[in-house]
Amino acid sequence: MVKGKVPVKLAIPNRRSTATASKTTGNTPGSVSRQGPKKPLIHDVPLCSSCGSFITNETKALQCDKCQSVHGWKCAECLNLPSSVYDALMSENGPPLRWFCDECDDSWKRPGVDDLMSAMAQLVDKLEQKLGSEIAAIGTRLEGIDEKVELVSTALNCKVDFLTNKVEGMTDSVMKTVSTQAAVNEAQLVDRANVHDETFHKRFDDKVDEILRSIECSAVEMNSARSKIQEDKEEEEEIQKRKTSVIIHGVSESADTSPDERQKYDNEEMENLLHRLGSDTVSVNKIIRLGKKPETSDAKPRPMKVVFASEEQKDVVLSRAKNVLRKREGASNGIFMHQDLTVKQRRRRQELIAELKHRQSNGETNLMIANWRIVERRGAQRGAD
To answer: Domain check: are 68 and 166 in the same one?
Structure first.
């Protein structure tokens, strides 16, 4: 908010009155007066940074909103600021504008190369740390799956060896029984051996099938885990690509056949919208119309994808749009904007909206969607308390 001159009573000491007061009271120039706090002297009054004139109670001047320094004042004459405009700025219902002194304005407009390089280095470090931790987590999960497959394979080999040895032992036992019991009917022995062999082979085959199914399930789980990791990675990449962009609906579209003229029209519409949002300093890198160009002039305008210079600027525009577009534009204007969401995020958003409508139809009120959850509005909670 623009800051004007705070009323200050200027007291310029008179040499003759000072000398008389010293004789009367007996106070030295360095002693403390008993008449109460001193009024500010002339060296306490700020000066105009352009013309050097005193900024007194009667002077119309502005102070820098950033540094708020005693040297950050400039009078209305040096600013070429008419009195009517100055009075409107100082009124209680004045526009929410800010004024910066030359030094602060230059430092804000042109950040140092070292600052930019430092910010870029910090961003690269953060990305490397995040990617490194994700890759390490993926490697750990894959190692666990490989170890599980190896354990299952080892157990299978052990069971096969055990069953093979058991078959050989049982075969030897049968052969010994046949040789020692010559009186037993050979046909009966053969039948019993065949039945025993079939039963054993059936149990053996069932056990092998069970182990094979277990291995197949483990392989399916491993492939599913790998697919999930890949999907999460691709989703994170999509979120990073869209973190500086928004989607705007309801902005009128040019019917001109020239692509350059349509792009120029979209740029002007975006500048006007940013001006209404009080975001003239926001930088736009790209504007894209989504979908196929309408063939008729009365068709509904296509949504606009707007890419800003930084995530911070995008957040500022979204925050102001929630307040300004709803209050000032009116429902008939139909302009609204939201974050550029991925396919998964849009699907999740639709599910939340359906759940919200269902709960509202069941009588629940004061609900809203925040941080991908349905919560109760804070204002409604305070009113109930």
So the answer is: no
The encoded tokens of residue 243 equal 């973190």
Between CA 173 and CA 332 the distance in angstroms is 95
pTM: 0.40
- Picking from 188, 206, 241, the residue at the C-terminal end of a domain is 241
Q: Check whether residue 12 and residue 97 sit in a common domain.
A: yes
Q: What CATH number does residue 22 fall under? A: 3.30.40.10
User: How confident is the model over 189-237, as pLDDT tens digits?
Assistant: 677 778 877 888 888 888 888 888 888 888 888 888 888 898 889 989 9
Residues 291 and 384 occupy one common structural domain: no
d(CA 356, CA 354): 5
**pLDDT single digits (tens) 327-369:** 544 444 578 889 888 988 889 889 999 999 999 999 998 888 8
- Domain extent, residue 203, equals 115-241
DSSP string, 230-268: HHHHHHHHHHHHTTTEEEEES------S-HHHHHHHHHH
Closest-CA residue to 11 (of 43, 51, 33):
43
